[in-house]
Specification:
Length: 244
């Protein structure tokens, strides 16, 4: 038992078992070979991404079907061959217009929380961005109920990115990006960590010259609305606009 790892999903086949789990802030895929009794990890093409796999009731199958996305990669459907260790792209979400994901850059940086914990921030922006503190930035988070805010693609964001915005997700405590303990450390008597983690992420974006308090917009809904109310009252000097 490890509170730093969240078990997401699994599939059992005759020759292979497939496990999806969250560790170090990312969902990962591990395959177990029932013949050789060995494990191996599946590598994905990006450093910041999200995936899940579909149910498959064919016991003798060597392939699993995976849905994959990132902040800049539209949703893709793959068959992953567990024997050959290879991906086959079956379908990709259509994006209208002349969208080219190579025009954008994604990154994962880290803020340091009040107690020293490293809090991940997922970023996407148009290539060529200058780190001069002048970029309008939208920072989003949720941070409750063990719900991880996964870095998925959305065409709705493109209008902002193409006008120079940075879009950021703060993976604060209250979610389960770093396992059950990440959730427990952001609930009940520990709820203040959720708020101070978010403030630390905002401060990191400013310190790293992505943006400034005059250019920073924050957003959260439902339990994220509680987050917005808390951080706005705690640090009204840190944000220009709040979408609660």
């Amino acid at each position: 038992y490890n509170e730093e790892i969240t078990f997401r999903n699994f599939q059992i086949y005759k020759n292979y078992w497939a496990f999806q789990y969250a560790e170090d802030g990312l969902d990962k895929l591990k395959i177990y070979n029932t013949q050789s009794k060995t494990f191996y990890d599946v590598d994905f093409p990006e450093k910041d991404y999200y995936f899940y796999f579909y149910d498959n009731n064919e016991y003798n199958e060597n392939k699993i079907r995976i849905s994959y996305t990132s902040l800049k990669t539209p949703n893709q459907i793959f068959d992953y061959d567990m024997k050959e260790r290879s991906f086959e792209l079956l379908k990709e979400q259509e994006v209208l217009g002349n969208y080219n994901k190579d025009d954008y850059e994604t990154k994962r940086i880290f803020a340091t929380a009040k107690d020293g914990k490293k809090v991940p921030i997922s970023l996407i922006y148009k290539k060529g961005l200058q780190l001069n503190g002048e970029n309008p930035t939208l920072l989003y988070s949720y941070g409750s109920y063990g719900y991880s805010t996964n870095p998925y693609f959305s065409s709705v964001r493109l209008s902002l990115l193409d006008r120079g915005f940075v879009y950021a997700i703060a993976h604060i405590r209250g979610g389960s990006e770093y396992g059950y303990r990440w959730y427990k450390d952001g609930k009940m008597k520990n709820k203040m960590n959720t708020f101070t983690d978010f403030i630390a992420c905002a401060e990191e974006l400013i310190a790293s010259k992505y943006t400034s308090p005059e250019k920073l917009v924050i957003e959260g809904g439902s339990a994220g609305g509680l987050l917005m109310g808390a951080v706005t009252n705690m640090r009204p000097d840190l944000f220009k606009l709040v979408l609660a």
